[in-house]
Amino acid sequence: MNNERTLPQATWDFFCSLKLAMALLLSLAITSIIGTVIPQGNLAPQYLESIGQTKFRLYQALGFFDMYHSWWFVLLLVALSVNLFACSFKRLPQIWKVMTNPTLTLDEGLKKSLGNLTTLKVSGSAEALTERVAALVAAHFATPRTTEKDGSFHLYAEKTPWCRLAVYAVHVSILVIFAGAIVGSLFGFKGYVTIPEGGSASSIVLRNDTTRDLGFSVNCEKFSVSFYDTGAPKEFKSILTVTENGRPVAGLEKVPVIVNSPLTYKGITFYQSSYGKVGQHNFLVSTPEGGNPVQVTIPSEGAARLPDGSEVHVLEATQDVGPFLPGKTGPAAQLEMHTPTGKTFRIVAFGNYPELNREAVLREGHPAFRYLGGTEGMYTGLQVNRDPGVAIVWLGCLLMVVGVYVAFFMSHRRVWVQVKDGEVVLGGNANKNPAGFELAFDRLVQQLKGELAPGEEK
Amino acid sequence: MTSSLLFNVTTIAYLVSMLVFFAFLASRVEKLGTLGSLTALAGLVLQTGAIGLRWRESYQMGVGHAPLSNLYESVVFFSWTIVLIYLLLDLRYRYRVIGAFVMPFALLGMTWAQLALQSGIEPLVPALQSNWLLYHVVTCFLGYAAFAVACGISIMYLVRDAAGEAAAGGGVLASFPPVKVLDDLNYRAIMVGFPLLTLGIVTGAAWANYAWGTYWSWDPKETWSLIVWFVYAAFLHARITRGWVGRRAAWLSVVGFAATIFCYLGVNLFLSGLHSYGR
Ligand code: HEM
């Protein structure tokens, strides 16, 4: 038994095989479906709610909740990379030989293997003919190399031999893209920051909830949203200024940042991603008769809980109700209240009209709210990323796109000619698109025929 | 003249073209094949005009953008690309019968769009306001269309292959190209589609990176486009692996197109994510 030698050999052959490539590509296709059906990256309680304990445990053990980073999915990708590498490593020397060390003579064996072969009878000595044929092949196809062997002359001409490498460029491009992704995950970060209008931020929150200092700060000078007539948002825009060491950075003052138009400084890019309101509103809550007054503060995008367990949030607030209700003055707010018993109330609370507030209360039977006023502004939500691997990924993509194009639409075309006294034999082939080559070859033959023996019908 | 009227005429032209191709299949009268192709071409010209008109109409409404922004517009564009790819293939190889298997896809798209989908011109949400929309959608859909054509050809292959010897006798099957030719055409259609899909995925990633700073986030649409890409990569390698040509390759092409359709429509209908609908 010499397992020591056959096992590595067998492993190598396994990784060189195209069957493995097929199996891996289809496995990747099928397993990828899982992550599109099971939402990725939710919190445990959300999953438990929808699928129950047993399934949850099973799926968690299999890594289905973050499947594209699970050990087995990464293993498939690693196997694909090894497969690609091994297969290319094995085949490349042969391809290289075909490219750099071609068969120069059209001998009998080669003649049998060529799909396109034609013999022309032409008068003239081999030497004189060779010169003319060589000039014609150079003019109509490509400059040939001439060899003399066994009393006859052989010409060899080729076009675009390098396009045989295109497939390997495609394969390498996949490895390049993986490399870019790895660089990005090792040396980059993704985070998020919210800046109130008029405020600034010098650190961001990363995905794992840690804070990261930027080394400079970003001021949100202004934030605005515009809407279409339909009510759909048209544009949201932050005007940002980058300041470093207390001074604005030249060229990065008052830069408008909108969706699809980010701002970059020192490799860190800020993307407009969301917006909202910040601020707080003060209310006086009492019994319908005005007894037991308590002051309650409700944040703009949050809720407050009353002593009886009800939850209240602000739908809309204004510091001057005049434009909306002519003849009235002072602040007003619209609230929504959910009671522990499952009731929902919409409440309008004025500042200057306690009697109006009380009227509704007597009708509906909820506590009385008096709006004391508040402050409110907009904030902008920015996605903040740094990814030094992106350039490598784009390089890989470029290589892939160009490589695929060349691999499919260009071919290595070869023509051999054997010249003897009174006879010219032409043969040729291409590594792709044989039908297209056949047409080109026939045209070449016609051209040679016409120019070598004008007027002679063969 | 409004674009929606033109789209209706286009739909009728595709219907006529399909019926003429069916008649050609049954009768094998050469002229009918030519007529089918010419009708398809007329439909394509009309549809091109209609798409251009709709583009202009959107500017007249003050919300100007390329007509590629909602389901209706994309289904219409998909039909357009299918007919375009079919006619290019026809120009090159002249196997007219293929029209009988490809035009139904284009007709189905147009009929569905005209009868069931919201056809109003809508303003673009902020996420779609980018030139990348055009590059991304055009490349993806041209790729999808080439796969639709490949699927039609593969169905012909499977029908012809299942009939076996019976095909030689005559009847409808006798007008099919030989299986070897169908196999080759299937490969050629995918050879057109694969680079386009590759470019579509790359432009999508480039756009995502430009707009959000992440070129890949495994959202369902992205993942499904990758699934489709894997299936066709497997198809391409199937041809260089012994035992995987012919019928199995035809099946792979059909499965690939089923995945394509799921990527295009199924993801929006059944799964949630950034792309539903539009981004
Ligand atoms: C996502 C992964 C892959 C992609 C996108 C890809 C792409 C391609 C393309 C476009 C071709 C040209 C096909 C043709 O001309 O019809 C090709 C050929 C080939 N691929 Fe791949 N490939 C991948 C993975 C692999 C793997 C894992 C192997 C490992 C065995 C492999 C081995 C080959 C071989 C041997 C050829 C033929 C080369 C030749 O004609 O000399 N490929 N590949």
TrEMBL record, chain A:
Transmembrane portions of the chain: 20-38, 71-89, 165-189, 391-410
Q: Which Pfam families match?
A: ResB
Where does the protein principally reside?
Answer: membrane
Example GO biological process: cytochrome complex assembly
Identify the domain of life.
Answer: Bacteria
Task: Provide this UniProt record's keywords sorted from A to Z.
Answer: Cytochrome c-type biogenesis, Membrane, Transmembrane, Transmembrane helix
Q: Where in the cell is it found?
A: Membrane
ResB-like domain spans which residues? 18-344, 375-442
Q: According to Swiss-Prot or TrEMBL, what is its membrane topology?
A: Multi-pass membrane protein
A cellular component term (GO) from this record? Answer: membrane
Supply the name of the protein.
Cytochrome c biogenesis protein ResB
UniProtKB/TrEMBL annotation, chain B:
Query: What is this protein's name?
Result: Heme exporter protein C
Question: One GO molecular function term?
Answer: heme transmembrane transporter activity
Q: Which residues cross the membrane?
A: 6-25, 32-51, 71-89, 101-121, 133-159, 189-212, 224-242, 249-271
Instruction: Give the keywords, sorted.
Output: Cytochrome c-type biogenesis, Membrane, Thylakoid, Transmembrane, Transmembrane helix
Q: Where in the cell is it found?
A: Membrane
Which GO BP terms sit in this record?
cytochrome complex assembly
- What species is this protein from? Geomonas silvestris
Has the keyword Transmembrane helix been applied to this entry? yes
Q: Which Pfam families match?
A: Cytochrom_C_asm
List GO terms (cellular component aspect).
plasma membrane
Q: Respond yes or no to whether keyword Coiled coil is given for this record.
A: no
According to its UniProt record, which protein family does this protein belong to? Belongs to the CcmC/CycZ/HelC family.
Q: What's this protein's function? A: Required for the export of heme to the periplasm for the biogenesis of c-type cytochromes.
| All copies of domain Cytochrome c assembly protein, residue ranges | 68-275
What is the protein's membrane topology class?
A: Multi-pass membrane protein
